[in-house]
Amino acid sequence: MHNISTGSFHLSIDSAQIHYSILGSGDPLFICPVTWGVDGHRWTALEELAKYFTLIRLDPRGTGKSGPVKEKSDYGIPALVNDIEALRLHLNINQWNVLGQSAGGWTALEYTLAHQPFVKKLVVVCSAPTGRFHKGTFRDPAHPLFPQYDALSKEIRSLPHDERVKKFNRAIYAYDVQTAEGRKIIDDIFSHTDFDPKRNQYFVMNELARYNVTDRLPEISVPALIIGGAHDVHVSPSWSERMAKEIPHAQLVMMEHSGHFPWLDEPKVFFQRVTTFLQS
Asked: Strand locations in the chain, DSSP E?
């Protein structure tokens, strides 16, 4: 049993102030944030896991309660991976479980590859090993939802960047949630979430082209749980199948009634599968 104080804290890393929080008790579980411009707390909505684990979350630089970005490279996943490892050392955790969804899965995979001895188990949800993942998604002209995506893109083109990002995500993520209750949660998240437009722009212009760990998947030796959403229109579930096939000690769970957010569409099944995997 780990004894880590719960609460909201700041950690100074290279003169930057990084905000993180601790919730719950039990085995440490780090929730990897996405890097495209939102904080690591409002976006995840995974507090249910704090019933079983010590839930650790971090706001990337420039988001939430963390301090501003000082160098352009601080927007990248490699810089975030360094901050995550600095946090682990600060908390004196020998090993922790790591979970990431969507672009947070990119963070989880890159962190695991960089610091594998300190990862107990890995959970990757509705993600991909490359930034070039758009085939089979709503951005693909062959996808049934492409007309809606194209019309929305044209509608918001003239808006200021931060307003454009918020309106786009608020609208497009609703396509990916299979239940009315889940759509209400997603709409609430995006109607109240602040974005860092420069971080979002860096993600689109730099990270999508840079990120690719496809050939390194066989290097991951820790037990891994790969969860896909059968109705995911943001990231094709075929990527989950490929990751589960190429990571040596991985098991695949395909959520048959879920989109990009399986904990909203099938919460009971999702939390039971994650908890059972991490506690086994």
From this structure: 7-13, 16-23, 27-32, 53-58, 96-101, 119-125, 224-229, 250-255
